[in-house]
Amino acid sequence: MTVGTLRNAQLVINQQAIFNNVKNAVQHTDDQTDLFIVLKANGYGHGAIQVARIAEKAGAKGFCVAILEEALELREAGFNEPILVLGITDPTLAPLAAENHIALTISATDWLEEAAAAMAVDPRLPKLAIHVALDTGMGRIGFQTPAELTAGLETLQTHQDVFIFEGIFTHFATADSKDDAYFKKQYANFQELMAVVAHKPRYVHVANTATSLWHHVCGANMVRYGISTYGLNPSGREITKLPYDLHPALTFTAGLSYVKKIAKGKSVGYGATYTADEDQWIGTVPVGYADGFPRKMQGFSVLVDGQPCPIVGRVCMDQFMIRLPKSYAAGTTVTIIGKSGDRQVTVDDLADYIGTINYEVICEFGERLRRKYV
Ligand SMILES: *Cc1c(COP(=O)(O)O)cnc(C)c1O
């Protein structure tokens, strides 16, 4: 993928903000509990390697990713911390994970049999670390019943020569909600499943960011800390009370590439959906939906010189147009996310506008957008 290193459009990542977020999370975690930073999807769009470097300085003890490739990328970059793949990996890849000291998540006994067979091919391989997922109500992956789990743990035990039982975990579906009834139900299911685990592994983990911020859980010793590493609230605007401040790390700016006056009655953009009802100044911004800036953003206001300027006409693949209050020079900064003067546009503002969550907005930003680290 070609990165726009020369055009004036960039995601500016504030490294100090990430450091402060991780540091605060570490300080609010008890001494027996390790903070693992979730770096999936290129560190929620912020750059996995860069975020990992900051997180380790701020006291993170390990990393979680979604897929094996993301774990390998971190190993290739030289990180030696424990890394856990949260999704299900094909059992034939067990040797590759083992060789790179990457822990894998399992959800079924069959998987262990297939992976053990793959591991047996090369007796010099280090053991593969396994984290057992428990489905307590997320309905995604994990053992569902004590009987299933017992069978899985027995198989793990049988193949002690190739596996290490390193962790056991669950994931909550509603930890970011004010209503904690479903959370409590899941927590009870978790305790019921854990009752069949005779020997606790090194890591027992249940908390994503929301759980770590708003719930009390016993017996766990690792946190999978994701969205608030990047300074965002996992609940969006639902729960505003936080144990510590979050510092949004991402700013999105671009320079006006072209400014012109259009006469009353002229239209702007594909489909000619916008027509000027008076003479107007129109600025063109070199960012489009191919950069992960959603086409549905038409009508949303970005900031120029501290003033809100609405996006007029449809967002194109590589450019969009805004209505300016007056003439501005080409190159003038357009703040798409961030502060300008007394005003601010947040990731949550974009998310609300298109009916999604902050997570999706930051993950969608394309590889073509340059990430600038400050
Ligand atoms: C993505 C993910 C997390 C991190 O979630 P946040 O809400 O960003 O903290 C934690 N655990 C699992 C299993 C995940 O898939």
Question: Can you say what the CATH homologous superfamily of the largest domain is?
Answer: Alanine racemase
Q: What number of domains?
A: 2
Instruction: Kindly identify the CATH topology of the largest domain.
Output: TIM Barrel
The CATH architecture category of the largest domain equals Alpha-Beta Barrel
For the biggest sheet, the summary is: 10 strands, mixed
Family: Belongs to the alanine racemase family.
Protein name: Alanine racemase
Enzyme class: isomerase
Active site: 40, 270
Written description of the protein model:
By secondary structure, the chain is an alpha/beta fold. It folds into 2 domains: 32-230, Alpha-Beta Barrel (TIM Barrel); 250-373, Lyase, Ornithine Decarboxylase, Chain A, domain 1 (Beta Barrel). Helices cover 27% and strands 27% of the residues. It has 11 helices and 20 strands. It has helices spanning 15-27, 40-44, 48-57, 68-76, 94-99, 109-120, 146-158, 181-194, 209-214, 347-353, 358-364; strands at residues 9-13, 34-38, 62-65, 83-88, 102-106, 128-134, 163-170, 203-207, 222-225, 250-255, 258-262, 267-268, 274-275, 280-285, 301-304, 307-312, 320-324, 333-340, 343-345, 370-373. Strands 1, 10, 11, 14, 15, 16, 17, 18, 19 and 20 form a 10-stranded mixed sheet that branches. An 8-stranded parallel beta barrel has the order 2-3-4-5-6-7-8-9, surrounded by 5 helices. The chain is elongated and about 80 Å long. Pyridoxal-5'-phosphate (PLP) is lined by residues 38, 40, 86, 171, 208-210, 224-227, 234.
